[in-house]
Amino acid sequence: MSRIGKMPIKLAEQAKIEVKDNVITVAGPKGTLKQSMVPEVTIEINDGEITVKRVDDSKRSRAMHGLYRMLVSNMVEGVTSGFTKKLLINGVGFRAEKKNEFLALSLGFSHMIYFKAPEEIAIECPDPTSIIVSGIDKALVGQVAAKIRSFRKPEPYRGKGIKYSDEVVRRKEGKAAGK
């Protein structure tokens, strides 16, 4: 039995869940999320707890069990509290600012980079060297943060670039002085 899949999901008071025609819909104060289900797993809702169960013991059913349990768990957490990713910018002259619906990045190139996030994602720049990406869909928040990071990944010699706030960049030693 999957250790992750067998754990029940606590349904928050504000969240409402509905399963209809192999589509699960979770609604809460921050919004609504939908996810189509595979026939290998079923969902049971009992007095404030959601349980994901597999239909049989096939390899695909076992694989989908833990996956769909985490997808449903992330949906419940997203519509109640949401997800955020913080990015830090390091480098002389590197900065970010919000211009209308675009994120304007100056990353040492000859041109500014303008990035437009999907409508479901909110991007904030509390100061010129940090970016906060937030939304209710965990996968989309991570994807947008990864896209912003890909414009200038942190390099190992000086550490310049865009990195996640919890990321540790392994620094390399530069060239040794020749004799």
The domain tally reads 2
Number of helices: 2
CATH class of the largest domain: Alpha Beta
What percentage of the residues does DSSP assign to strands (E)?
35-45%
Please give the alpha-carbon distance between the first and last residues: 63 Å
Rg calc: 21 Å
H/E element string?
EEEEEEHEEEEEEHE
**Rough outline:** elongated
Low-confidence stretches: none
Helix content: 10-25%
Average of the residue pLDDT scores: 92
Could you describe the 3D structure shown?
By secondary structure, this protein is α+β, with helices and mostly antiparallel strands. It has two domains: 9-80, Ribosomal protein L6 (Outer Surface Protein A, domain 3, Alpha-Beta Complex), CATH 3.90.930; 83-164, Alpha-Beta Complex (Outer Surface Protein A, domain 3). Helix content is 20%, strand content 39%. It is built from two helices and 13 strands, in the order ββββββαββββββαβ. The strands form four sheets. The protein has a four-stranded antiparallel sheet with strand order 11-12-7-13, with helices on one face. β8 (95-99) and β9 form a beta hairpin. The protein is elongated.
